[in-house]
Amino acid sequence: MNHFNSNRRQFNLALAALAGSALLPGTARAASSVVAAVFPGSWEDAYRRTLVPMLAKSGVELIIAPMLAQDQLAKAIAAGGKPAYDALLLSPGQTAEAVDRGLIEKIDTSKLANWNKLDDKLKSPWGPTVTVEVNGIAYNPELVPRPKGYKDLFTNPAYDGKVAWLGFGSNSATMAWVEIARLYGGGEDNMQPVFDLLRKHLPKIGAIANSGNAQMALFQQREIGVFMASTNNVSRLKTMGVPCEFVHPESGSPAVPVNIHLTKGAANPAAVYAYMDAAISAAAQNQLKMPPVEQIPTNRDVAFTPSLEAFVTREQMAKFIYQDWVKINKNRAAWTAEFDRIVKK
Amino acid sequence: MNALAAPSLRNLPYFGPMLTASVLFFLAPLVVLAVYSFSSPEGASLANYARFANDEFSVSVLIDTIRLGGSVVLGTTLLGLPIALLYWHAGPRIRQWLIFLILLPMLVSNVVRTFAWIVILGRQGLISSTLLYTGLSSTPTNLMYTEFGLILALCQIELPLLLLPIIAVLSRANRSLVDAARMLGAGSWRVLLTVLVPVMLPGLLAGWILVFASACTSYVTQAVIGGARLIYLPQFIYREVGVLFSWPYAAAVAFVLLVSTGVVMLSISALSRHRRLVGHA
Fold it and tell me: What is the least distance, in Å, from the CA of B123 to any CA of chain A?
C-alpha cells in the first residue's frame, strides 16, 4: 500500500508538472521562438518544410499551429489580450476584423530586409503579403462550355443546374458576389442587384453548398460543372486528375492577399519579424511556388514557374481587383441574413 | 445497500474526479456561455433572446431542427424495429453477426460516412442510377441537398444509437413471456404489441433520446448533405461564431437549442417512468 501511495504521489507530481508546463508556455519556450498560426493542409506542410529549417539556421524556432483563418481570429478574440500565437496568417476579410478588434499591431518595416522586394500593393502596414490568392471561375470542360464571365453563368442556359454557389460565409464567394453586384450596378455598398438576381435565378442554380470543400466534392463527383474558385483550388483538382480549368472573368479577377500579422502582446516580436522576413524571402518563395502548393510569389526576384503562368502572369497581377473588406465586413451580417432568407427551402 | 449508492465525503475519491471534470469541462463553459448570452451593448439583458424570438426566420430554423430530429427518430424506429425483432428471433451466432454489423459503421468516422452519402444521393449516384436502370425514372434524381436525402443519411448514421440500447434490453428479456403469451392463445401481432414492444420500450426510449440529440446537433451531416438551403441551428450558430463573430447572439441561440432539445429529451425520458407504458403495471 505504501508503495502504491508513493507511486501515486509521484504520479500526481508528474501530472502537476505537466499541467504547470502547459499553463506556462511562454517560460517553457526558447527565448527566440515564434508560435505561428498557419492554414492547415498544404500551407502547413509547405511552411514546415521550408520555413522551419530556414529559421532554425538563424537560431529561431518556428512552431506551426495549423488553423483556419476564422478559427485563428476566434481564438485570438477568446484569448483576451494573452495571445496563444505570436503571428497570425490572415486574408483581408479577417484582417479587417483583427484590426477593428485591436488584435494585431502595425509593423516596423525597417526590420524586414526583404520589404522592398514587394510591390507597393502588397505592402500592408499590418504585415507583409506572402502570397496572393486569385479567384475566378472553375469549370469542367467535359460538362460545360468555357464561361466568359459571371454574367454568362446567369444568362447562358448551358449553365442551368450546373453552377454551385456559396453564401457570404465564404470569402471566395463574397468576392464573387461583390463582382457580380458591380456588373449589375451594385458593389461593396449595394448587394441588392445580387439578391434580385438570386430570387429570379434560384430554380436554375445547381447547388448552394455550405463550404468550399463541399463544393469541390460535388465538382469531383460531376454533380456540378462550375464553381467560384481560386487558382489553388483548380491546381489541386488538376493534380487529382479531375478535368478542371480556370477562367479569369472578363470583368477582372478578384484577389486576396494573404498576410502575416504580428499579434498584439506577442512574446517575442523580434522572432516574428524574422519569420515574416523569411516568408517573403526569395529563398523561401522559390520553394513555395513549386507544386503541390504553388503559391504565387510576392517577392519580385522570384520568377513564375510555367505551371503558375498557366493561371496567372506577373503582368496580370497588376490588374487584380482588391476589394474593400472594411465595407464588406460592415455589411456582411446583413447580407448573410438576406441570403439565407432567399435561399432557405 | 451499496456503499457507493449515496454520495458522501467518504466516497469523494470515487466520484470526485468525475465531479471535478464535470464542473470544469461542462458546467463552467456552460456558465460562461450563459453569461455571454445575456451580454449586449446596453449591458446584461435578454436582448439576444428577444432578437431570436422576434425573428420569424430564426424561429423557423428552430422548428426545422426539431422536426429534423423527430423525422430521424421516426425513420430509425421504422428501420430499427425489424432488425431488433430479427435479433430477438435469431440464434446466438446470428446475434453476434448482427451486433458486429450494427457496430461496423461506427468504426468509420462520421465525416467519412457523410461524404460516402454524396456518392449515393447525387445525380450520378447509386439511387439515381438504379432508378434510371430499372426504368422507374426517366431523368436523373438528385437527393443531395434535399430534406429526404438528409433524413435518409441521418437514419443510417444514427441507427446504431437506437439499436444498441434495444439490444441491451432484449438480451436481458425473459423469453418465457412470449411462450406464456402464445400458450394463452396470443397471435404473432398480439405477442409483438403486448409483449415484445413493452419489453423493448425502455431501450427504445433511450435510443430515441440519443438519436434525437445526435440528429439535431449533427453539424457535419446537416452541412454536407443538407447544403446551404436547408438551414438548421448548428450551422446557424457556427456562422454567428466563426464568420460574423456575434458571440453573444450565438451563445443565446446555443442555449435555445440546448433548452429545446432538452425539453424534448426530458419528455421522452418522462415516458420511460410511465409504469403502464414500460410494462410494470
Answer: 6
Question: Could you tell me the CA-to-CA distances from B211 to A41, A297, B115, B157, B165 in Å, in that order?
Answer: 33, 50, 20, 9, 11
Q: Supply A11's cell numbers.
A: 504520479
Paired strand residues for A190:
A187
Q: What is the reported pLDDT for A68? A: 86
Instruction: Parse chain B into domains and list their residue ranges.
Output: 44-278
Evaluate if residue A286 carries a pLDDT over 60.
yes
Terminal CA-CA length for chain B: 26
Give me the pLDDT at residue B279, please. Answer: 56
Most B CBs within 10 Å, among A91, A174, A210, A223, to test the B interface: A210
Between CA B13 and CA B100 the distance in angstroms is: 37
- Angle, helices B233-242/A69-79, rounded to nearest 10 degrees: 70
Q: In chain A, which residues touch B (CB < 8 A)?
A: 70-71, 73-74, 77, 97, 166-169, 207-211, 214, 217-218, 221-223, 332-333, 336-337, 340-341, 343-345
> Alpha-carbon torsion A78, A79, A81, A86, what sign?
negative
Residue A3 grid cell: 508503495
Q: Are B232 and B64 in contact (CB under 8 A)?
A: yes
CA distances from B99 to A55, B123, B129, B203 (A): 54, 33, 31, 15
Scanning every residue of chain A, which has its alpha carbon at the shortest distance from the alpha carbon of B57? Answer: A341
Hey, what CATH class is B44-278 in?
mainly alpha
Helix (H, G, I), strand (E, B) or coil at A62: strand
Instruction: Please give the pLDDT value at position A298.
Output: 94
Considering Cα of A67, then A72, then A76, then A79, what sign does the dihedral take?
negative
DSSP secondary structure letters along A267-302: S-HHHHHHHHHHHTSHHHHHHHTSTTT-PPP-BTTS
Chain B hits for A207, Cβ within 8 Å? 144-145, 227
d(CA A315, CA B180): 88
A-chain residues near B227 (CB < 8 A): 207-210, 214
Return all residues near A46 (Cβ < 8 A) that are at least 6 apart: A287, A288, A293, A295
> Rounded to an integer, what distance in angstroms lies between the CA atom of residue A16 and that of residue B241?
33
How far does chain A reach from its first CA to its final CA, in angstroms?
A: 66
Contacts of A221 in chain B (CB under 8 A): 118-119, 122, 124-125
| Whole-number percent of chain B with pLDDT over 90 | 56
Q: How far is A111 from chain B (nearest CA, A)?
A: 33
